[in-house]
Design a protein that fits this description.
Layout: E1 3-4, H1 12-18, E2 31-32, E3 42-45, E4 49-52, E5 60-65, E6 71-75, E7 83-85, H2 86-91, E8 96-107, E9 110-125, E10 129-139, E11 156-158, H3 160-163, E12 167-171, E13 176-180, H4 185-192, E14 198-202, E15 204-206, E16 209-216, E17 221-226, E18 234-236, H5 237-243, E19 246-247, H6 249-260, E20 273-281, E21 284-293, E22 298-300, H7 302-305, E23 309-313, E24 318-322
Parallel strand pairs: 1-21, 6-11, 7-10, 17-22, 18-21
Antiparallel strand pairs: 2-8, 3-10, 4-13, 5-6, 5-9, 7-11, 8-9, 9-10, 12-13, 12-23, 14-24, 15-16, 16-17, 16-20, 19-20, 20-21, 23-24
Length: 324
Amino acid sequence: MSRLVSRTRLPTVALLSLVALLSPVALLSLVALGACTTPPTSMTVRSESSVPLEPDTVPVITLTLGSSRPAPFLVDTGASVSLVDDAWSAANGLTESRYLVPRRMRGIGWQRTVWSHARVAQVQLGDGATAHDVELALVDLRNLPVPGAEQSRPVGILGADLLRVSVTLFDARRGELRFLAADPIEERLAVLYPQTSWRSVRVEWKDDTPVIALTAADGGNMRMLLDTGAELSVIAARWDRTLGLEADEERAAEIAEIFATRDRAVLRDDLPFRRVTGVSLAGVPLEFSALRVGAERGILGNDVLRHLSFVLDGPGGRLLVAQD
């Protein structure tokens, strides 16, 4: 039986970014374009660290940067770099430094040149996990469409630069994110989920972000960016043609109606949603709605991922998915 992904009404912040998805190339998360030579971030897990996740939204956790007060951060596997709001950084005493080479960043409907960053010696992630020597690009996030719960808008993004050196368990169904010790992962999962088996797929780090493959019914591999920060999944147009997917008019009508309430002239035909069926991730059948775009690869967003339990094993280059 396919795993059905429930339809949820998009929060307002997602609507602000949806227009960008209608362009030929859609980017749902941050991409660092400038060259940069910085010391690598490292992770120490003294004891397994569990961090609560806010319900019914993208993964937002509370962490502590150095000696600053705790703050909400979006955990975004689709963002190649970590960043923090520049005003929050200044107010909380983080030291600003200039990049030798400025970075250009682009996201949903925006593009910026970033000149400065803050380097934090320690970032505390729950009680037992600490990230060391973390660089955070300084960006004005106040007017950018950063997703998250309305009651605790994130002041920063924890990106793939940190997650690549971590073993991170995402379990939205239990409402938690865990940072695990690197070895042995399977033994720990057997304790946490005694009735659950796990299967893994390879993770390819493309442009410093994790790319995985969904298996199609015809045996083909659909390359997808694994993007916990994206509120919508995206499918490449060629897979729409190959699989003969049906239009999801109900989803298109739903989004068009929401846009209409915001005085935006968006028609159903402007929103080419497709009902994706006959695909699986590490043996788990999936069925979900996705926006068709003319991109090289698709995006597996949080609208799908929040219905799964999975481990992103950054050092091991794999994704482990619960088979329940």
